[in-house]
From TrEMBL:
Name of the protein: Flagellar basal body rod protein FlgB
UniProt subcellular location: Bacterial flagellum basal body
Gene Ontology CC entries for this record: bacterial-type flagellum basal body, rod
Gene source species: Gallaecimonas pentaromativorans
Protein family (similarity comment): Belongs to the flagella basal body rod proteins family.
Stored Pfam families: Flg_bb_rod
Length: 133
């Protein structure tokens, strides 16, 4: 009997990928907290996860006019957008609120760790089943 890893792991591998991408964006926001004109960005987790689970390619791809051309992506992810600022304009056009970003980063990290622990438990269960324990 074959083991279907897709059925065994569910959406957690896709969730880990999206959470990792979100962590990059949130850390970029924190790094640019003092950059004039920087706009805070975030991922619409629900939309990004739906794209990842359905296997849709994120972003826009370039048309290949020859088989010798390398495949490329423009890297424009429709699930990534600018966050509406919670604070009044500080005069420099920056919309990053460092406290909000830290809070969102920690929440994202906890949810990432939850998915990793769930997958670890599933893998241990599969290993026990394979070994006949």
């Amino acid at each position: 009997m074959a083991i279907s890893f897709d059925n065994a792991f569910g959406i957690h591998p896709a969730a880990i990928k999206v959470r990792s991408e979100r962590a990059e964006l949130l850390s970029s926001n924190l790094a640019n907290a003092d950059t004039p004109g920087y706009k805070a960005r975030d991922i619409d987790f629900k939309a990004a996860l739906a794209n990842a689970v359905s296997g849709q390619q994120q972003g826009m791809s370039l048309e290949r006019t020859s088989d010798k051309h390398l495949a490329a992506s423009l890297g424009l992810d429709p699930a990534v957008g600018y966050r509406n600022p919670n604070q009044p304009d500080t005069g420099d056009g920056n919309t990053v609120d460092a406290q909000v970003e830290r809070s969102l980063f920690m929440q994202n990290a906890l949810e990432y760790q939850t998915s990793v622990q769930f997958l670890g438990g599933k893998i241990k269960g599969l290993m026990s089943a394979i070994k006949g324990e």
